[in-house]
Amino acid sequence: MPVTSVTTDTEALTLTVVADFPVPVERLWGAFADPRKLERFWGPPGYPATFDRYELRPGGIAHYWMTSPEGERFYGRWDFSEIEEPDRIVVLDSFADAEGEIDTSVPSGRMTLLFESTATGSRLTAVSESPTLEALEQVLAMGQAEGMREAFGQLDVVLAELREYALGKGTVTEVLDDTHVRITRAFEAPRHLLWRAHTEPELMRKWLLGPGGWEMTACENDFVVGGSYRNAWAPVGDTVGEPFGFDGENLVIDPERRIVTTERMTGAPFPANVNDLSFDEDGGITLLTLIISFPDVAQRDMVLATGMTTGMEASYQRLESEILASV
């Protein structure tokens, strides 16, 4: 993880997060200067940000929201006071409403982002200063420290060249904690094609099959928020196995960017998982990131033990050879 320290100073009324990255400081600055890059990490996993206004200049305003896996939006606003490229950004950091007006029920704070070169790359120091001890305690109780740690923990992927970082590595599975798993897979294809391949049933039937010897017998989706879906598979020929399927509900649909669904094995007596699938494109490479939230560690381990990653990689290889290569 790039984050090296998270400290709270109740006398100075500050929360300070420090993170180191193996890239030049100009690239680190660029991740904050480009709202499309900023969207890829500003917000902890499962709560990605969307910036609809971003004016990186003294007196400028940024307005954004974070969308939860359940589709709930949390709004924020930055009022830029100091910009010193590529060294320093200072903002008034506030909660906001959907129109971008400051929410005065939560105290605003001063956030300073410092960018500096190091012997191995660059360092980001983020200092959030609250107006009172009560205000500091309030934002800490709301999870600001952990949220910033998790947000900056995603920045290394944004700073990396996706071609070098992920392309050719296949499907990678990481256990984040007892109930969360992150799966990534990179493709040399534009995002809109990957989106089509995951949302158009006639394309899904051609590649979403896992290991050889299976066919997709159902691919139904009322593709709106609140709509339900059902997918099912059955063995063909001499393949050994029992038919199975998954069903669930669409929670979030952000076209060409994110799909969040519940997922339950059809007929199984287990609670549903939540699947959070995002699509990020950079330099002609699209990175799929799937964050799975499990109800408990036992269900997490049970699912991982099925060889899920192997089946996903077989499907993704078929997607590359039979869908993306022909479009």
UniProtKB/TrEMBL annotation:
InterPro entries, per the entry: ASHA1/2-like_C, START-like_dom_sf
Q: Which residues form the Activator of Hsp90 ATPase homologue 1/2-like C-terminal domain?
A: 23-159, 189-321
Q: Which organism is it from?
A: Protaetiibacter larvae
Stored Pfam families: AHSA1
Q: Which protein family is named in the record?
A: Belongs to the AHA1 family.
Concerning Gene3D superfamilies, the annotation shows: 3.30.530.20
Name of the molecule in the record: ATPase
